[in-house]
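Lab notebook page, bench 4
Experiment: in silico fold of construct C2
Operator: M.H.
Input chain length: 206 residues
Purpose: comparison with the prior construct
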Amino acid sequence: MSRRFTEPKLVVATHNKGKLAELRALLGDYPVELVSAGDLGLPEPEETEATFEGNARIKAHAAARASGLPALADDSGMACAGLDGAPGVYSADWAGPGKDFGPAMARVVRELAERFGSFAEADRAAAFVSCLCLAWPDGHDEIVLARSPGQLVEAPRGPNGFGYDPIFVPDGFGQTFGEMDPAQKNAISHRTRAFQLLKERCFTPA
């Protein structure tokens, strides 16, 4: 049986302000005090797993153990069909230690063009993937995974969002995540879809 979240305080296991802002918005009026791992000065654990689920668990359990509080971690990235799922769990690594996603987006476009002869001929299907893990200090966890499918564009478009948002157009839309108003993006994002699953499981009355 799934465990319901009833505690008054939750650690968001991230040092990424963009992720923290999205999760704050997703929790909305839920009566819980949010604090980030960055705010608490918690170290970022080494992500050694090859799956989103594995790395989400590492981050959530590390924060729960260090803080003595329940912790929510997100491991997410962009999986490109034409690159056999890359960059996937290594999406942040492609941005380097400075987390500069300009070169990372350029690498996606370049590698697709090299593999298919040109970007125009490439398989441009991609999906943002989000795995959320809610862990308690006693070792229990709840985990969900969701995807937001779409297509890639060659040149980044839009100043909003973060990461690979400016080159990703979600299915059914004409704008990139980078061009969308944040509220519009959040309504359909992979993280929102994952959180809806987690909310139904852990954040609503049984």
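Observations: Helices lie at 17-27, 52-67, 101-116, 182-188, 190-203. The chain has one domain: 9-203.
Next step: discuss at group meeting.
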